[in-house]
Amino acid sequence: MIWQTARYQIDLTQPKIMGIVNVTPDSFSDGGRYARFGSAIAHAEQLVKDGADILDLGGESSRPGALQVPLHIELERILPVLVEVLRWGIPISIDTYKPQVMQAVLDMGADIINDIWALRQPAGDGYASAEEVVVKHPSCGVCLMHMHREPQTMQTEPMQGDVVPQVLLFLEQRRQYLCRKGVDLSRMVVDPGIGFGKTTAQNFSLLARQADLLGLGAPVLAGWSRKTAIGAVTGLDMAERTSPSVVAAVLAVQQGAHIVRVHDVRETAAAFKVLQAVKNNTQHDSES
User: Fold this and answer.
1) Which of 77, 227, 241, 266 is catalytic?
2) Can 227 be counted among the known catalytic residues?
3) In the predicted model, is pLDDT for residue 267 greater than 80?
4) Catalytic site residue 98?
């Protein structure tokens, strides 16, 4: 399976690691550590050395209760870092829902738009809608995520009932809609939105039944890294969640995920090497 992006065709035969670079002062897990240009670049460099296949830059936190960031602030945070990392020969994703930011970063050469709103932001005075920005681009990749409500309210009133069919329906509707608009399926990845308006039990239901998402015909991205649901079942603080986050990433891949979005790239890459060694040995035994 190939993910078509602006500059790269990403081979998803083996799972890929998307390393998180939060250029924000208020990210839920590492807020402020990489908010300055120098620290953000150093962190991104380390993620690549550790084994990141894709870098995901974000200039606005989407943690529960997060407030919106003005457009000019988000651009001031992202663009200088983007200029540098575009030189590195690695796919660059931008985590944003604002159409104006999407247009700016795609004009600069970014490869992927990673949108928690699944391109539902409307047009405004003097700018196109999120979907229009992506539709008119010839080849950029896009990650469509499911989110219940919005960051300010998503955990105060989480979803009700069995979330799996609800998430599937939403993502299928968005996929079909964009296909009708002319966006090729090869450009799309879907994300069930772990932690975005779901209870702990609902999040783990999405992991246990994640294979159901494969029926959408698009690669699946899983974002479990350091999430509150992991803290809820382990009792671990944010700084202690590396090991269970890696376990969740491995389980997600075993359930069919093609990409995992993580903070702890080195540990995740090491775990994937172990997983691949098991697969290689299993294949060898079946061929003997």
Assistant:
1) 227
2) yes
3) yes
4) no
